[in-house]
């Protein structure tokens, strides 16, 4: 029951708050018509790390169309802000092809505290290919956070090879740790909701 309350709250926040930015945190990729994901393939999440006051957050994917996604779904239980980008492995991107997806970043201990929501984006079939690297926006407050500047960032159809940090919690073999991490996060969220209701 509590999990449903949390998921409903997050679904409403995600649906109503496209392009939300709190504490300087803003999602740069994916989002909008020009920055889509490819189903079953590695895909990027890039955010404005240099402007954010948050040190870490939980990453979720959401869609108000329940025929595409029945509930908001966890992607990364604890992401460090300083990473600036995260590569979500293809084994995790199993959502059906469709429009209206959003990435939601929340407090790791209280998922009803939404930090940022991406613009709606589309998950496309493999045949669509990745968006052109020139579509990737930059974090204006710091060095460019875009095509190929981090080892965990896809640029066009290739993986960048710069000095960024490696992906965490979403690679092959991480599915069980992702599940256990999200179970722990779910317990914390449940405790936070119980405390709020008392």
TrEMBL record:
Compositional bias ranges of the Low complexity kind: 155-173
Biased composition, class Polar residues, residue ranges: 134-154
Domain of life of the organism encoding this protein: Eukaryota
Record's keyword annotation contains Signal: yes
Region called Disordered, residue ranges: 134-175
Signal peptide: 1-18
Keywords: Signal
Entry protein name: Uncharacterized protein
Organism: Mycena albidolilacea
